[in-house]
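Meet the record:
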Amino acid sequence: MLARSVAVILACVLTITARAGAQDPMPNPQAMQMQVQRIMQERPREAEAAARAFLHVMATERNLFRVEDRLSELETLKRAMPDAYWAEIAQLTVQFDMVQNLMRRDSVRAGLVTQMFGLEALARTLQRAYRNASEAQRTTYRAQLEKLMGGHFDIENQLRLLEIKDIERRLTEVRAETQRRIDKRAEFVKWTVDDIIRDATRPH
């Protein structure tokens, strides 16, 4: 999961959530990746506020983590590794915007995606800690990462099951409409011919 680029991760989530029944399309992964890069370069203060707000939202989903711990870790990262700090801020900000857009069209999917992003935030924290850890600590971190990514995989499957249900519902509707047209073939043909003749005899 963490070895994949932001664009690929977003593409996966967008593919799963694209069938939420909204009229407006979700932003494409390339545009979101560009937004992440822009935030990392420009470092706007409003992005920091959005990222912190999203941490509060994620913390309420299944009690994923203590928000105080994550905020404290962000402050430490800001002092020690500014580039890594802004990469994290950008990721959280773009994800928060996506969740807010999704919430307006499908609150169930939005909740699941929020949980996924929360698990990813925890995994990134462990990834940073892993770099300078001892072998014993790395063993512990790996076990924790496996647990997090197992939960992430399970949520992805829940989203896919929702998509399957949507597809099955739409297929049922299309089949019913097709059968209705077959059953009323004579009426539809008559109505069509009536329209053609009516148009042909209409004064010009």
